[in-house]
Design a protein that fits this description.
It is a single chain. The chain is α+β, with helices and mostly antiparallel strands and 183 residues long. The protein has two domains: 32 residues; 115 residues, 2-Layer Sandwich (Alpha-Beta Plaits), CATH 3.30.70.3270. It contains six helices and five strands. The strands form two sheets. A three-stranded antiparallel β-sheet has the order 2-3-5. A two-stranded antiparallel ribbon has the order 1-4. Strand 2 and strand 3 form a beta hairpin. The chain starts with 13 loop residues before the first helix and ends in a 15-residue tail after the last helix. The protein binds iron/sulfur cluster (SF4) (2 copies).
Amino acid sequence: MFAKVKRERRVINVTEIQEARGEPGALETLKGMGVTLKHLINRARGDDPTIYYPEERRPYSGRFRGAHILTTREDGSPKCVACYLCATACPADCIYIEAAESPDPMIEKYPAVFNIDLLRCVYCGYCVDACPEEAIIMSREYDIAAYTREETVYNKEKLMRRPQIAQSGLGYRPIKIDEYRKG
Ligand code: SF4
Ligand code: SF4
């Protein structure tokens, strides 16, 4: 049997502490003004920590997990072979694929429909890890804004080609795919 240890609770009364310290004097005010002045001087020197979004953007790591990209072959068709591994691995159940017979006799299937619900996605990257074809990777696109719920469901065309891919750059992906042609 373990003996029950009773811990004494320490009550911190903020009001009492403030009253004991008294009103801030001239020295504290001057110290505060000094901090403000220091930042003003730093800013005048060009050392400004503020990022003026959206004109300026923070540089993110190449491992950033942003909106997905479906990679393409040289002829522009998706590399995806509709194996459903990504959809099976997805913990958020947000990938929807409809497989169809590929017109290329060397390829068995292709995704006639490939949708990702980006509002359900938790950006874990499991789909990228599961893909045997390096057909799905992530971008560094993080500012996904929409007026309707439907707009946040990215279809195959949007996953393969959208201007934001070139703007944001590639994110989490297999190392080998660094030469991927941005669509
Ligand atoms: S990043 Fe994670 S949650 Fe999002 S689609 Fe891929 S597996 Fe699903
Ligand atoms: S993206 Fe990759 S894992 Fe997902 S269905 Fe296509 S080939 Fe399979």
